[in-house]
Amino acid sequence: MRSVLAVPGMHCAGCMGKVERALGAVPGVASARANLTARTIAVDHAAQVEIPALVAALAGAGFAAEPREDALEPPSASRELLAPLAVAAFACMNVMLLSVSVWSGADGSTRDLFHWLSALIGVPAILYAGQPFFRSALGALKRGRTNMDVPISIGVTLATGLSCYETVTGGAEAWFDGTLMLLLFLLAGRALDAMMRDRARAGVAALLRQAASGAMVVGAEGALHWTAAAMLAPGMLMRVGVGERLAADGEIASGTGRFDQSLLTGETAPVPAGPGQCVLAGMLNLDGPVDVVVTAAGQGTALAEIAQAMEAAGQGRSAFVRIADRASRLYAPAVHTLAALSFAGWLIAGASFHQALVVGIAVLIITCPCALGLAVPVAQVVAAGALLKQGVMVKDGSAIERLARVDRVLLDKTGTLTMGRPVPDPAVLDALSEVEAAVALALASHSRHPLSQALALALAARGVRAASLEHVRETAGRGVSGTWNGQAVALGRPSQSGGTAAALAIGAGPVRVIGFADRLRPDTRAALAELGALGVQASILSGDVPAAVALTARETGLTGQAAALPTDKLDAIQRLQRAGKRVLMVGDGINDGPALAAADASIAPGSASDVGRQAADFVFTGDSLLALPRTVRAARSTMRVVRENFAAAIVYNVLAVPLAMAGMVTPLVAAIAMATSSLIVVGNSLRLAGAAK
């Protein structure tokens, strides 16, 4: 079973590693995946493992936790950091003004006065602005552990203490400016990171808030009563009025209308829907009232699935994340060792205690691996948020890395390249008389057959009004029949049809044959051209009959394999992988499940089966196939930014650490260099906000 715990004290890659290892050590826990954006951890464990045992394990590691369903909405980390950030900025600017005078040559009593003024401003500011780091470090040390904040706190404390000593004894140097600069940049980096994560979390929260808080439910005797969304259950009948949003997923039982689904797909064009059509929580009814049978409510809705997918996007572990996690685990002992060696080495070399201590402090400050720890998570979360705005859900953050490397894409036909639903021939509909269209709509509205539903939907979208019929009945395999103005009318299968046409008969008049086709998704050819430009070769892999696959292949210009069983699709992917190809599978059906799971990366449309959506790494909720090249481009941009972030972090450490150990860097310069490296990584990642356009 899976439990989700809220861990508000988790704020860096090192914290994530400690939380996961603490829970992994609990007997019966199979896996634990932390989500830094949501400040939660998902734990897969045996049924006999109780929540209190998990909470106790985290408490032993220095992290307070509580079950997710009991947790209050976590306070915004960015807002919590604003006051310390403001204090650090104010104090830093004022102390810098005093420091400029000292750097300009002030000496003697003037210099001492400026040092005292700096101390009066700086010490209280350091004590207040440093609280986020001091609290975290003390919590870790109390439990015999270390984290990123321990060496930061030690460096700040030593620098402040040494500066106070220099001030009291009339020394030539004090580093209140450098200490405040360090805190200012550290807080700025964390605030930017927190703002980005708050924005990602707020985007999902805002999405969920758009769903209706409840619905009018039709009772057994036709009476209407208000029911909260949390109390809705499958099988209930909701009545959705004009201008109301749906509170649950469902299937229209009666009525037709147009729905605004921009909340779910980003597409602004209204979508017509009629009896038998699926509608989703969050959709806005633009036309007349409809009755909807609930099929999924609460956490089972597509809207809730989007939120769950966004949270899961922060839990993936790519190769880059694993490297950063290992580096973060080694950070504290490595930094303490380097600082101690630098201090001891300078003492042995004959330096004064004061000079050796300054070098040790500079090493502590300059070696913070914040940039390395932020290199991947920030980029992943920003990219996932950008894709969500374009109607693409990222279910696994690590899949972004795999998708960036794909060079082959295999596409299912029905429901993937095509819409998966029949559409009547518009030329035939144009040729229908007003009477024929009205009778056809009336007959089609009484049938549950997919062709009848598609015909009713198309005619309703044209503004046709249904005729008034009598003695309507539907016969399985034959169609719908009735009486209109004393004439027998019928809508059924024509004698010379393979099942993709409907015949309309009115009295003794001529029979109208209405053909249907499963049309390609919008922008299919443009999407395939863009994939080709990205170096991704596409082909069709479908279980449909050869004739249907051949027709779609001609329309798209692709090669195709037809009549493929699930095992055939799996074999095709494995053959390509053995040949060194990186395969992207795009499919929607239950038969695509094994292939979606076996591919290097996988994408499913929002209309896919539950199996297809669960197996896929990404889900696009709109109709347009342009989501495919858009997602591939975003993945490649993300990994390019990740590589840039890693390169910046590595170059920084390679250059900065030796300089600090050689005594060529003061605590002020160390503070500026370390904090700037983190800001560069966060700022570089924020460029991905437009990566999915």
Q: Can you walk through the features of this model?
A:
- The chain is of the alpha+beta class and 693 residues long.
- The protein has 5 domains: 69 residues, Alpha-Beta Plaits (2-Layer Sandwich); 249 residues, no CATH class; 86 residues, Calcium-transporting ATPase, cytoplasmic transduction domain A (Distorted Sandwich), CATH 2.70.150.10; 148 residues, 3-Layer(aba) Sandwich (Rossmann fold), CATH 3.40.50.1000; 95 residues, Calcium-transporting ATPase, cytoplasmic domain N (3-Layer(aba) Sandwich).
- The protein is 52% helix and 17% strand.
- It has 25 helices and 26 strands.
- Strands 14-26-25-24-15-22-23 form a 7-stranded mixed β-sheet, with helices on both faces.
- The longest helix is centred in the last third of the chain and has 35 residues.
Shape field? elongated
Can you tell me the residue ranges where pLDDT is under 50 for at least 5 consecutive residues?
70-74
Number of strands: 26
What is the CA-atom radius of gyration, in angstroms? 32 Å
The number of helices is: 25
Number of structural units classed as domains:
5
Characterize the main sheet: 7 strands, mixed
Order of adjacent strands in the largest pleated sheet: 14-26-25-24-15-22-23
Intertermini distance: 38 Å
The proportion of residues forming helix, as a percent range, comes to 40-55%
Structural class of the secondary structure composition? alpha+beta
Mean pLDDT across every amino acid position: 82
Beta-strand residue fraction: 15-25%
